[in-house]
Design goal:
Structural class: alpha+beta
CATH topology of the largest domain: Beta-lactamase
Shape: elongated
CATH architecture of the largest domain: 3-Layer(aba) Sandwich
Number of helices: 21
Oligomer: single chain
Strand content: 15-25%
Helix content: 25-40%
Distance between the termini: 104 Å
Amino acid sequence: MNRNNVNIIQRSGWFFLILFLFAVLIVVQLINIQYLEGNKYRALAQKFTVREFTIKANRGNIYADDGSILATSVPRYDIAFDPVAPSNRNFNKYIDALTLKLSYLTGKPQSYWKQTFVKARQNNRQYIKIIEGVNFSGYQKIKQFPLFRLGRNKGGLITELHTKRVYPLGNVLKRTIGFDRGQRNSAGIEGTYSVYLKGKDGMQKKQKIKYGVWKPLSDINDIEPQDGYDVVTNIDVDMQDMAHQTLLKQLQKYDADHGSVVIMEVKTGAVKAMVNLGKTGQGDYKELRNYAVYQTHEPGSTFKLFSVMALLEDRVADVNDLVDTGNGTYKIYNKIVRDAHSGGMGKLTLQQVFEKSSNVGTVKFVYQNYKDNPAKFVNRLYNFGIHEKVKIDIKGEGKPVIPDPKDPNWSGISLPWMAYGYGVEMTDIQMLAYYNAIANNGKLMKPYLVKAVKSYGKNIKTFEPEVLNPSIASDETVRKMQEMLKGVVLRGTATNIRNNYVSIAGKTGTAQTEYWKGKGQYISSFVGYFPADHPKYSMIVVIHKPDSEKGYYGNVVAAPVFDMLAQYIYGKTPREVKVVQVDVNNSKTEKIVEKYKTVMPDLRGFPGKDALYILENMGLKVRMNGSGKVVSQSIPRGTRVKRNQNIELKLT
């Protein structure tokens, strides 16, 4: 063998040795990946194909004080199909029957669904969306479709649950109920009490089928969501609805920009109704903002309550002290204060000044007694507490503005202008709280909307009436103010709402607004309580920017709303009736029988299944005729109903 052949053999040997060693290394690495580091790489691969998705918890319901639903969540299901999951036998056996059902459900031809599923099965596509937003009843029917009834693994049915928030009262109470769109974008009861309502979210793992498409790995969530708690409010649905309709008619009559009504229980501060209506671009009225809570504005003559209280508390004037209102004008520096009554009202007592709402008389009493020491007047107002919020239990309460002589903008006309409600700002709920305090013999109550948080009927947390100030003024001052407020209706600016049915005490208010733009814009108001001698409810009505050619005085625009609501509420308020029981030993016991009732919502326009869900939550027995949306209901909206009562719905 020559030398060249030997070299070739040696080189070939080295080459094959290198190949052998390389092959050994590959085998070792495969064993290492498969067995020693297999879990690591499998987890890494799964990380990019499986993801955890949040399953939103069912939000708790919001109820009125009688159990009527103000806000609730109804279930919605998205339906999809995994054509690869069924066996060949089951797929071929049921595909025709399934696609026929789906054609009726979706309106798409049977041939479309069959071709789609067959092609997807051939291409190993495991997720075909069928329909979104199916209600619970529809979901139950779909589960029984051919093939689907075999379940997730054998039948390929894929369902994803989410919820939709619905409001049986529609636009009524919308801004008070509010919304929850995250920590920085929430309002009303929904936003303030979200920590109770929202519950705890669950988790479900899903596998990526293709770009943007994820399929649940099972029908069972990895972590089940926990439903939110229910919130029970003080809202009386009857009062709310009547206040809404009455204010709406008055806004329409006077073509006003917006307005609000708040009704409160005198002894507790419980808010029984809160209406906020504003004009839309289309000219109708809806609950656009919670004006009563957030909007501060110059109140005008309703502020005279505090001016007169200050005079009485500081003992610089009394109810029978006289002042000359002259011809109804009073000049201070280069500004003129005018009375609404042309020609003036001559000499008036302090009580008459208040009852007849004389601007000149009020300003003269305040200016002449405090002009040398305006801080004394302002400090008295601060002692009442009107510079502080009343801490209503929903977000967004506006901050009142009560000027101080130390402020850089204080001038010679600040004091007299404050006396009759200009240069100061308060919200409607704040003004109402103080009039309510007068009705409550001086005790200032915190206005509150929510009285309990519950879980399946059991109390989790209760909210009791809260006293903000046990006495805003002396008993003597409070008593005198009560008499003056009665006098406003009996002899003063609000005699037009005096009636023989329910006695009313209160104060009219007519304030110019945006006067720097020119004349003609007003805020009309009336705030007070009823019955005047034994107050049960307080109320404020404020209407912004009525058409001045149609009317703008508080007694004309706002007071009639108060009067109508006071008579309605007084008529529906049950009298306290004691039931006397006599036992065999002739001893007597007394008890008060309480009836718990529910008020029927207006369900017209609701999908039938949503209406069914709401009514069954109310404990009613429902009969439905037709399908689609509700067009009529056998029990009208606002009717009081009992559990197990029958109701019939007609659907389109």
